[in-house]
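INFO batch 0412 | record 1 of 1 | parsing
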Amino acid sequence: MAHVRSNCKNLSTTISLEEPLLMMVEDYRFTKRKDNRSQAIAELIKKGLKYEALLNKKKEKMLG
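INFO prediction complete | emitting tokens
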């Protein structure tokens, strides 16, 4: 369950990442000039979900 903070419009949650993955997120963050890690992670999640939806759509199209 996400935590609702009174001083923020967004829900918050805690995640754990292995060090190599965290370093990739940090590299992405600085390469794309994101203000903070949360923005970078949110953008990467959105891109991943969009890609997953595209793959599913392609798979459905191939199956008929």
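INFO post-check: Residues 33 and 40 are 9 Å apart (CA to CA).
INFO record closed
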